[in-house]
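User: Run a structure prediction on this.
Assistant: Running it now.
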Amino acid sequence: MAFPKNQLLIQEYEYDFAVDGGATGVFDLSSKANKADLPVGAIRKSAHVLVQTALVGVGASAKLGTTASDATFAANAGVGTYSLNAIFNNTTAVAVSAASGADCVMTVAGAPLTAGKLKVLVEFILPNS
């Protein structure tokens, strides 16, 4: 996927129980159709997680981030924390690299999810050179 340079861009990722299921493990949200890893060399300005349908699953927990830092967007927490319209933010700027992670993943642990939907909006700039 080609991204324009010198512009503030937003890459949107989505987890949807109705589409993705709720098994424990790692969901690679950036590998879904019409999604992509951020380009290496970009500056990730912020990430925002918006819960559109509360996550549900007795004993389940979830976290969101990258392969390199799997809780950088939202820390590991019981699903009760992921209630309807909850918002999680990370506004620490990071240069996107293999070490910082260019993808978006959601990790479910403890027990499977039985419902939920959320969006991850990652704001970034791709420098001209």
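Residues 16-125 form one domain.
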